[in-house]
Amino acid sequence: MSEIKHLSEDNYEQETAGGVVVVDFYADWCGPCKMMAPAFEEAAQEYAGRATFAKLNIDTAKQIAVANKVMSIPTLLFFKDGEQKDRVTGVIDKATLAQKLDALL
What we know:
This protein has 4 helices and 5 strands. The chain is of the alpha/beta class and about 100 residues long. It has one domain (about 5-105): Glutaredoxin (3-Layer(aba) Sandwich). The chain has a 5-stranded mixed beta sheet with strand order 1-3-2-4-5, with helices on one face. A hairpin with a 2-residue loop joins β4 and β5 (about 85-90). The radius of gyration is 12 Å and the shape is globular.
């Protein structure tokens, strides 16, 4: 079972620096974010050991959201070796998430 990491301004740079990392920019009050959470959690389990899954609460890390030009949530950023390779804004299903991950692995 994969652990979903919770990012903050203190660990964001370090956690996105290596390998394939998917960061879910969300907020606790966001309905669409809650709708997407099950697909994100299932993908985290399915890709355990091959990709890192992380969540970043935009209410507690506004500077990172601004720096990454996150204008609406949910937004997923896909990193490979510290470089942003893809982004999706809005709710996506697990199949779409898997397709984007497979392209990076």
